[in-house]
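Worked Example 4.2. Read the sequence first, then its structure tokens.
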Amino acid sequence: MKKFGKSIKNLWTLDDSVLYLNHASYGATPLRVIEAAERIQRELEREPVEFFSDKYFERVRKVIASLAAFVGGNSDNLVLLENATTAINTVLRSLLPNINAQDEIIITNQTYPAVKMACRYISDVSACKINEVQIPYPPTCADDLINVYRKKISKRTKLVILDHIFYTTGVINPIKEIVSFLKENDVLVLVDGAHVPGMLPLNIESLGVDWYTGNCHKWLFAPKGTAFLWTAPEMQELTVPLSISYYYGQSYTKLFDWTGTRNPSSYLALRDAIDFHHELGSERIFDYIHKLAAEAGDLIASELGLAAEIPADMFGAMVSFELSDVNSKGDNFVNELRKRFFTKYRIEVPFTEFDNKVLIRFAAQIYNELSDYERLAQALKEFLPSIRG
């Protein structure tokens, strides 16, 4: 069984001159999965008509069967899409005929910006209210998060979009507990689980939600542009893709499996990514990346004199720290910080804006080890004085 850490980094094509601590943003696809996608595309181009007419539908369903076993979802409830943003837009646009000015959609101050913009569009078209609730930071326990939603829902709440893991802070939302009382109030629930597949064990069917989306190109090692949408059976008739093609009026899976000609190699190579995850040991991966993130968080807190703000049982493999005396000047400011830091230290780590403060967020993957974060700590000690004050 392979040992995790720097010794397996050669399974990826990552630049050896870069310390890569930002697996969370776009993932990193292993070489064997890239090669699988390339083989599939070459196979397609040898005989495109035969591939799409005779092979594609059976093969994409076999891939989805593997995905279903991995995420704990019935394959009849699962379809593939390019990314979680597309999936969320799909759900919102499907709901649009049933949303009006008397309704509200609840999001949070940590909702992914692209999702906020999609909700803004729905509000502009339907005149529904978008209620952005404030998630406390740092939370001390799950009840801090549960109570936010409990206090904010009302009779006009049509839909709640729940982040399973908040992208800004890496905090895990207690989804099952929140969904329980939302469904008691007949509220529709869409879960944005962009970071979950491959980072945390998942059993979608047990959550009681209406829709769940997750990216596979982040933590599950799939090629870029691979995600899924799980839809509860009772919501499948109204859930339609953004692009309607030949199979409108047929089953949910048939409708989504073909929305027009596209390069399906990233979808079909998902099976190779799942196999790769299993062969390395999925439980080993979940355990390693969480323990490494926790150790790295303690190390950074100690070296920089920061508070270890989030309890270890409330994050997976992403850790954030607020750089408390650095005021944010918006997205351009944090993007420039990332570029300056990367240029000087060759360390890829994101600076993010939250609540008008700058946070630094780092990820732990199986090609990382604790010495990577020791290097990060030393670089931050030198860099932070230049941006504070």
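Now turn to a second chain, presented in exactly the same format:
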Amino acid sequence: MPSPALAIDIYTIFPEMFIGPFDSSIVRRAQDREMVQLRVHNIREWATDKHRTTDDTPYGGGAGMVMKAPPIVEAVEATLGLALTQTRIIILSAGGRKFTQEVAEEFVAAQRLALICGRYEGIDERVSTHLAADEISVGDFILTGGEIAAMAIVDATTRLIPGVIDAASIREESHHDSLVEYPHYTRPAEYRGLAVPEVLLTGHHANIAQWRREEAIRRTGRWRPDLLRNSGAPESKI
């Protein structure tokens, strides 16, 4: 059996959350074609007390609980084995560096990922230190845990594997060239008084490409002006 282009191990105390999201659409097809391998591990299986406790009160006081280091570290070591040194270890954390399209491409190139889903007030810092982990945030907001963030990363990286979806589709997507994508239209040509832009009906590919570029710049200026600094687009087009 050939090795998958991308192998992802996920560590969580709520493995049941992943039942469903990975069983349909592009991610499912990529698994069926053995292009991506996904494994979900229950951290509680490496807890040693009868209640399978994975959290404790923080040293120094404070609200909330902190996920303990031993069950997480031992889960990662036991399941990855010799592959540990070839695996990018990622902790999903609100305080991590922001996940972007460029980071997704970086992760696909790594070929092996381990995603550790935080909960409560966070994870004992020694997990990150011992496993030399990267910390990633999917945005400047707080989730109740890292599971939804892990699902987003799996989806964003899987679709970049060559052959999973059409390469031309990826080249024209939002965040390519630091711009959001141009607007799309399909049949009917007119709907409730709103017509498809005339240029899209001409078949003139150069004019269509120019219109799409200008619209992408305009939409980026409206919704994501922060991206324009990296796009090289003239501000006069905004």
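Notes for the reader: The first helix runs from residue 25 to 32. Strands lie at 6-12, 36-42, 55-56, 66-67, 88-98, 112-117, 134-137, 190-191, 194-195.
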